[in-house]
Amino acid sequence: LGFPSPPAPPLLSSACALLAKTISPSALFGQQLAGPRDALAAFLAHLPTLRASPPLQASLACTADLRTLPSPLPARDTPAGRYLIRAGRPEDAPAVLPLAQELLAITPAGAPPPEKLLADLGLAAARRLLFVVEVCDAQDRTDSSPKGKDPEEAAVGSEIAGYVVLGSSTPRVVWIRQVLVHAAHRRRGLAERLVG
To answer: 34, 52, 74, 192: least buried by Cβ within 10 Å?
Structure first.
């Protein structure tokens, strides 16, 4: 309903009424609903027994595809092995927390309390929806291999240069909920590598 923008109000209302008839309000209990504000309001208007927790939150969103993305920037100051992109682990959540707070602070709703954000990051990692850019050097990666360790088994507490949190995904679509690279590591193509 309404991607990338909602249809005219009469059509939107009719579509929401039809959709509301096919969904049990109990199936939505505790779930997040996302979409344009007008579409959500129309949908909720047709489910009078469903109560949304105020306030309705808003977030910044954009869409892109290969035609709208700029040409890749040449990598600068990225010696081989300096960065490792790997699946995040729940123990990475404390290192990612300051980056997530920085990103979410600019949204209209602001960053949630640190405890909640930490729990959300840990859950995203457990569900394999969190990926991190870890700062390391080539020596760190080669030292771990002879001992039989996977290069992705990096030390807890290492410096995290950036992260991405994915939402739901299908074979054709991946929803990127958050992506941020620390200011000291920007302009090196890391965000592009995270989402590429």
So the answer is: 74
Q: Are 90 and 130 in contact (CB under 8 A)?
A: no
Examine the pLDDT at 35 and tell me if it is beyond 60: yes
- Residue closest to 133 by CA, chosen among 83, 81, 89, 80: 83
- DSSP annotation of 55 reads S
* Alpha-carbon span 15 to 20, nearest angstrom: 9
CA 89 from chain centre, in angstroms, equals 15
Could you read off the pLDDT of 124-168 as tens digits, one per residue? 999 889 999 999 864 544 444 434 445 445 445 579 999 999 887
Amino acid letter for position 2:
G
Closest by alpha carbon to 194, among 162, 153, 154? 162
Classified as helix, coil or strand, 178 is: strand
Quick: pLDDT tens for 99-131. 999 999 888 888 899 999 999 999 999 988 999
Q: How far apart are CA 33 and CA 44, in angstroms?
A: 10
Q: Which residue has the tokens 């929401």?
A: 16
At residue 143, the pLDDT reads 45
pTM: 0.57
